[in-house]
Structure formats: C-alpha cells, structure tokens
C-alpha cells in the first residue's frame, strides 16, 4: 500500500524541478496526479506549451501510475478553476494541492522595475490564491478533508539579497497560509508552508552554485519525501506550520517573540533603549538560514 492510495493531487509547476519530483513520488505512492505547468522559462516568459507537463505524465503512466497534464496559468482565477476542473474531469475528486509554480526576476531593489515586481508577486502570491480558492471551495462544499501545501522560501522568511520581489511574495504566502490554517480547522482542511532547498533551474546560478556540480543530496528527489510526509496522513496532526526541507534535512521554521520590555505604564524611548536586551534576541539565539 502507498501513503497516498485513493488520493488525487494537484501539483503546479510540475513540469520539472521540485514539482516533477513531487509528482513522480506521489504517483508511486498511489496518488492520481494533475501535473500542471505553463511551459514558460524561469523569468515567466514562454509559449505556454504543455509539453513539459505531458512528458512527466507520460513517464508516470509508463510506470503504471495515473496522471494527466494541464497547461493553465496559475496566476489567474480562471486558470486555477481549470486546473481543478482537470482533476475532477479525470479523477472525480481532489484531496491534495501543492502550490509550487514560480518564477524569478532577481535584481537589487533599485534596479527592480514595476513589471519585475508585479509579475513575480502575481505568479507566486496571487497564483497561490488563484489555485487555492477553487480547491478550498470544492473541499468545503463537499465536506471533504484535504491538504494544501503553499511554497514559501527562506528568502521571504529570513530575507536574501537581490530578491525583494520574490521575498515579499514568499512572505505573503506565509501569512496567507497561517490564516487559512485557522479557517480550515472547522472543515478538516490542513494548510502547511514549505521552504524547500534544492538544486534546480531556479537556483542553479545563485552565488556559490554557478558552474558547480550539485551535491546529490540537494537534488529535488531528496526534498520530495519531506513533502510526501506533509500531504500524507503521517502529518495529520499538523497544520499552520512551515517546514524547511533541504539537503540539511527537515526542520520547522517558527516565528518567535522575546520576553520583551513590559513596564505596565507609559514609557519613553529611552527606557526601551535601556531594556534592549529584553526587546531583542541575543545574536547567539538567532540564525540566518541559507537561501531556499
């Protein structure tokens, strides 16, 4: 028996990289998979070909799995609705959504154009909304439990040079996930965040990686088991949490607060400065995670 027997999973941006690794593993674990991919390049340009998604589907079918391709644009609500329709037409249900599709237009903030900002936020943040809304309503209206994984990033949770647009979108996804995890409890819908770290076409030319052979542990296939855990019943008790999954393993990323300065009366800015050791975490208590 597989961990996802009888389940139907939608995975966006699954024509390559991390999404492809998720699709292949989910299918091997018994899920029927909708492989969505617009067929664009890393910066969001492209002809919208479904060929990348279809290749993944063909490979899954050759292994005896169940899958269907979809080439809709995740950044429109019509696209999100069509992705759900593909799942319902082919398999009659949906149980899992992994919002993985994304693009990059990395530049220092001063060199970022409005178009660079708008498109990255549209694909990542709005795209997560556009794909989640139809699935959310279908699960809610049909009284079915389900699991939604939203892809954030350490670039949004910790920050990273040259990725103001990407980081802002990924931080927004974290907030979106936290709210839906609260709202989803009454419907049995689990929502989790993912901050993956892998060597893909999205990350292959980042500082320190360009021209280097990838560490085998950093390949997408070594992130996929952590995501399989998240969408399976093994994680049934967890919602509203972010897991960092990378070659370093699997760990939860949390937002914390200090004891703080609590005077219980009106106070001055000078008093805040005098109690800074209570307001801020000590440097020894903090860490900056590597990108993705």
Layout: helices, strands, pairs:
Layout: E1 8-11, H1 17-28, E2 32-36, H2 51-62, E3 66-70, H3 77-91, E4 96-99, H4 114-141, E5 146-151, H5 154-157, H6 164-184, E6 189-196, H7 224-231, E7 242-246, E8 249-253, H8 269-274, H9 276-279
Parallel strand pairs: 1-2, 1-4, 2-3, 4-5, 5-6, 6-7
Antiparallel strand pairs: 7-8
Keywords: Oxidoreductase
Pfam families: adh_short
Domain Ketoreductase: 7-205
Description:
- It holds the Pfam family adh_short.
- It comes from Phenylobacterium parvum.
- One of its GO terms (molecular function) is oxidoreductase activity.
- The protein is about 40% helix and about 15% strand.
- The protein is of the alpha/beta class and about 290 residues long.
- An 8-stranded mixed sheet has the order 3-2-1-4-5-6-7-8, with helices on both faces.
- Strand 6 (about 190-195), helix 7 (about 225-230) and strand 7 (about 240-245) form a beta-alpha-beta unit.
Q: Which structural class do you get from the secondary structure elements? A: alpha/beta
Give the full name of the CATH homologous superfamily.
Answer: NAD(P)-binding Rossmann-like Domain
Beta fraction? 5-15%
CATH topology: Rossmann fold
Protein name: Short-chain dehydrogenase
Keywords: Oxidoreductase
GO molecular function: oxidoreductase activity
Family: Belongs to the short-chain dehydrogenases/reductases (SDR) family.
Q: How would you summarize this macromolecular structure in one to three sentences?
A:
This protein has helices spanning 17-28, 51-62, 77-91, 114-141, 154-157, 164-184, 224-231, 269-274, 276-279; strands at 8-11, 32-36, 66-70, 96-99, 146-151, 189-196, 242-246, 249-253.
């Amino acid at each position: 028996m597989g961990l996802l027997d009888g389940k139907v999973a939608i995975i966006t941006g699954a024509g390559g990289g991390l999404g492809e690794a998720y699709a292949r593993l989910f299918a091997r674990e018994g899920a029927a998979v909708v492989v969505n991919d617009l067929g664009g390049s890393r910066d969001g340009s492209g002809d919208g070909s479904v060929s990348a998604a279809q290749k993944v589907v063909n490979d899954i079918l050759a292994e005896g799995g169940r899958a269907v391709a979809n080439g809709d644009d995740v950044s429109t609500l019509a696209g999100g609705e069509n992705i759900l329709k593909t799942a319902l037409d082919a398999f009659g249900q949906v149980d899992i959504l992994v919002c993985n599709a994304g693009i990059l237009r990395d530049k220092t903030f001063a060199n970022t154009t409005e178009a660079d900002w708008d498109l990255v936020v549209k694909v990542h943040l709005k795209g997560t909304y556009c794909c989640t809304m139809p699935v959310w309503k279908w699960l809610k209206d049909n009284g079915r439990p389900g699991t939604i994984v939203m892809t954030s990033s350490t670039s949004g949770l910790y920050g990273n040079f040259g990725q103001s647009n990407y980081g802002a979108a990924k931080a927004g996804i974290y907030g979106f996930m936290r709210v839906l995890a609260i709202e989803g409890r009454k419907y049995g819908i689990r929502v989790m965040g993912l901050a993956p770290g892998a060597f893909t076409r999205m990350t292959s030319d980042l500082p320190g990686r360009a021209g280097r052979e990838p560490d085998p542990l950093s390949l997408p296939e070594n992130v996929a088991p952590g995501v399989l855990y998240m969408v399976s019943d093994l994680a049934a008790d967890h919602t509203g949490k972010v897991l960092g999954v990378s070659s370093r393993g699997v760990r939860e990323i949390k937002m914390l607060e200090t004891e703080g300065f609590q005077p219980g009366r009106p106070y001055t800015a000078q008093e805040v400065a005098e109690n800074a050791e209570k307001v801020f975490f000590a440097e020894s208590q903090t860490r900056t995670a590597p990108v993705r």
